[in-house]
Every structure is written in C-alpha cells, then in structure tokens.
Amino acid sequence: MAERGGDRFKRKPMRKRPPHERIRDFHEVALGFTEEDALAEAARCLQCPNPTCIPGCPVEIDIKSFIGFIREGDYESAIRKIKEKNNLPGICGRVCPQEVQCEEVCVLNRKGAPIAIGALERFAADYERSKGVPEARRGEPTEMRVAVVGSGPAGLTAAGDLARLGHEVTIFEALHSPGGVLTYGIPEFRLPKSIVRDEIEYVKSLGVKIMTNVIVGRTITLDEVFAMGFHAVFIGTGAGSPKFLYIPGENLNGVYSANEFLTRCNLMKAYLFGEYDTPIYIGRQVAVIGAGNVAMDAARTALRLGAEEVTVVYRRSEAEMPARLEEIHNAREEGIKFQTLTVPVRFLGEDGWVKGMECIRMRLGEPDDTGRRKPIPVEGSNFQFEVDMVIVAIGQNPNPTLTRTVKGLNTSEEGLIITDENGRTSIPGVWAGGDIVTGEATVISAMGAAKRAARDIHNYLMEKKGAALGWIPPTP
Ligand SMILES: Cc1cc2nc3c(=O)[nH]c(=O)nc-3n(C[C@H](O)[C@H](O)[C@H](O)COP(=O)(O)OP(=O)(O)OC[C@H]3O[C@@H](n4cnc5c(N)ncnc54)[C@H](O)[C@@H]3O)c2cc1C
Ligand code: SF4
Q1: Is the Cβ–Cβ distance between 437 and 419 less than 8 Å?
Q2: pLDDT at residue 261 in the model
Q3: Which residue owns the Cα nearest ligand 2 atom 2?
Q4: Distance between CA 33 and CA 16 in Å, rounded?
Q5: Which of 207, 337, 446, 475 has a CA that sits 20 to 30 A from residue 137's CA?
Q6: Number of helical (H) and strand (E) elements in the chain, helices listed first
Q7: Which of 54, 121, 445 to mutate to test ligand 2, by most ligand atoms within 8 A of the CB atom?
C-alpha cells in the first residue's frame, strides 16, 4: 500500500504509452492509475466539509465520498458510490473534460493542482471490471413504459435511470451498434470499445431493451411509438450531421468529413487492421481542417492508419483551439503538425482526386460572440500546399431525421430541439436532451441533461399513474 499523505500539491501523472510505440496500433494511450498511484492521489484530497467539486459534475457524483473510500482501500464502496449517479464511469473517467468540470472547481486547483478526479473514477471503474461487475438492482416494476430514441450517452443515461426506477424502457437506435459517438466517433486508442460494450451491458442488466437498426422518423414514426403503448418518449438523437466548408473542390475524391472517416474506421473496424480489410482511403500527406476533439481524433487515426504526414489546419491560434489540452499535447507528441491562423479557400484536384489546397493566412481581431478572438483574412496572403487527403472537422449539425417528421415539435433555426430546463419539449409526453438540444457538446453534459429529464419523466409517469408526486431517489 502506498504511504498516505505525501505532497498535497503534487498531482500524480497518468502513465501513458510512449509515442513511437502507440502510433503503430490502436491500443489505449493512457494506461490509468496503479493501486499505488490511486492511493497516493486520493490521499491528497482534503475531504472538504463543503466540497466544491460536486456541483462541477453534471451528474452530481458524490466525489468526496468515493475518493474517501479509495483512501481507505475500499474500492467496491467507491464504485458503488459513483454508480449511484453514473452508469458509465469507465467512459466518463476516460473522456470527460474534467479540467473544465469537477477538477476546475476543486479547491486544490487554486493552490496547485486539482485532484485527478477523472483518473480516480476510471481506477474505480476498471477495478470493478477486473473483479466482475455485480448484478444491477432494479426498482419495483411500475408498469409504465418509456421509449428512448438514440443510444448515445444521453439515451443510455435516461434509459438506465428510468429502468432503475422500475419503468420498462426500450431504446430505438438507428445504427447496428449502440453507443452513439462513444462507439462510432471516439477512437479505440482513447476509449476502448470493450469498455463501451461492458457499460452498455450494465445498462441492459438494469432491464433496458435496445432495438438497433430502427430509425425513428423513417422505420417508424413517433406517433407509431406512442401507439405501441409507450407512455413517454426521450429523444437523444445527437448532432451527427457533418458541417462542410462549402468551398470549391470539396467534392473531390480524398476529401472526407471527419464524421464519415471516423465512422468508417470505428464501425467497419479499420482499427483492427490485419484482421479487417476496411474500404478506407489513406493519403500520404493529410490535412485535417479544424482543431476540436474530433479533429485531433481524426488526425491521430489517419497517422495510425499509415499517413506519412498529418497537419491540423486551424483558422485561429493554438490558444483558441477547442480540443482538450491533453489531446493537443498527445497529438503533438505523436508528430501531428499544426498550421494555425490558416484557412483553406479551395481544394485543388487532378483526375478527380484532391492533390492540394489553396489557403489564406489569418490574423486575430476582437473577440466574437463565442468569446474567442475573431479570425480575419490577411489580404494577398494566399499560398498552396500539397495534400492527397483532407478531413474536414469543423463541427456537426443536429441530426434532422426525426425532428423533420414530427409535427408540433418546436426546433430552433439550426434544427435543435427546444426544451425547458427539465428537457420537456413542446409535445406533451416527449422529452429531449444531449447534443440534439445543445448542439455538439460533451458526453457528461448530455448525461446531465438526460438525468434531469429522467427525473421529470419519472414524476410525470408517477403522476399519470395516480401515485404521489415527487422524485424517488434511485437505489444503487
Ligand atoms: C470524434 C468525437 C470525439 C469526441 N470526443 C469527446 C471527448 O473526448 N469528450 C467529450 O466529453 N465529448 C466528446 N465528443 C462529444 C460527445 O461525444 C457528444 O457530445 C455526445 O456523444 C453527445 O451524446 P448524445 O447522446 O446527445 O448523442 P450521440 O452520442 O450522437 O448519440 C445519438 C444516437 O442517436 C442515434 N440516432 C440519431 N437519429 C436517430 C433516429 N432518428 N432514430 C434512432 N436513433 C437515432 C444515433 O445513431 C446515435 O447513436 C466527441 C465527439 C466526436 C464526434
Ligand atoms: S463524471 Fe466527469 S465531471 Fe463527473 S466526477 Fe466524473 S470526471 Fe468529473
């Protein structure tokens, strides 16, 4: 066992595989905490009487208590405490932007380095997984039925919470595999599919049924869902439609949206090269347009699939990049190049294939409505560079398949579903949450919204059933 106490202000770093080794495969880059690391990191926690970290977690995990259990070496109680609020701890411990959530508001952040809350959550989840996940406890059946559309983090959270309260829940998922972006977007080297699979199995063990290959709005309508006997519907259809640049040459062969590129890699198993012959074209010189998490994932995936040089092209400077700092750092370590203050104005082609890009340099002006300094083109600064593959990763729009087919569902100009703070839409009995409401955001914000909606759906169902109003806290 590690010595307790230690240096309060020195955070335990997460072990990682060396760059030269990890760029040759899709195995996970971050290796997680050893027991010794976890004990030492948990020992730094001040166990504040009024912990500030908890309000920083959108799913309200009792962070102080679970870290307290890790300090005592009681890992079973730690994971049980986490699972009172979060059915997907192995996922959140890996991909949550903790630095702007729970860790940002940890008091030690002001004094030095915050507690590595995400890494400790991952440790507890991985510990449980290595020992065998105990059977989930379901609530007493209420005979009320809820349909959930979409099986991303929002859908899985709403479904899990409602099933735990005794409701009969069925998820309808358009694709052949559940998980949403967790399955078809985030690459294996950041979030192994086996973790996603196991945490989905846990949600299923709460009694949730998942029907794949069902597109609500095409295979069946929302009215037909109600006609099947469901008493309430939660929509978590995400923001899965790629944004484009709308510049000349964008339809050349070799120009992908990040969405298509990563989906091909993930769902058609290109990451298992050697075992699967996935139809995916990889150029020698690849440009990735954009600098969010999706761009970093696409760049690092292209590198692993055999590109010789990958350059991230971004219109602002590094300080404004929306990707997590950790992922920018990982990409740099792996040899990804960065061309900042640059925007492509057209793609150049030969025989129908992309062969280059014409770009223009930018300078930064005053902050725009996002708070970031606005990029302004520098006249006459056009230049060309050679590329034989481009991945456009400049953002996603809401998925319109369902929203376009439902009468009376209020949406914004961009196609986002408009809800109140509990996720209620303009149609009675229909809730929504996650990226389809906020636009592309984060796993944990989608889960937080789904949790609030699940509470409200439960109250609605209980009211409908004639039971007393009020939220009954879920029993783990
Ligand atoms: C490549 C990539 C990397 C990312 N990295 C991070 C990260 O590191 N950290 C982080 O916090 N966030 C990250 N994000 C963002 C995060 O994944 C999303 O914010 C989150 O997945 C949103 O969850 P959701 O449940 O709302 O939607 P989604 O995960 O998009 O799930 C929506 C589901 O609904 C299904 N669906 C859509 N329409 C229908 C229909 N009509 N009928 C039935 N099913 C339907 C879709 O197939 C999909 O499975 C990343 C996103 C991408 C694309
Ligand atoms: S789920 Fe995310 S925000 Fe909540 S405690 Fe875990 S890492 Fe922090």
Answers
A1: yes
A2: 94
A3: 96
A4: 10
A5: 446
A6: 17, 18
A7: 121
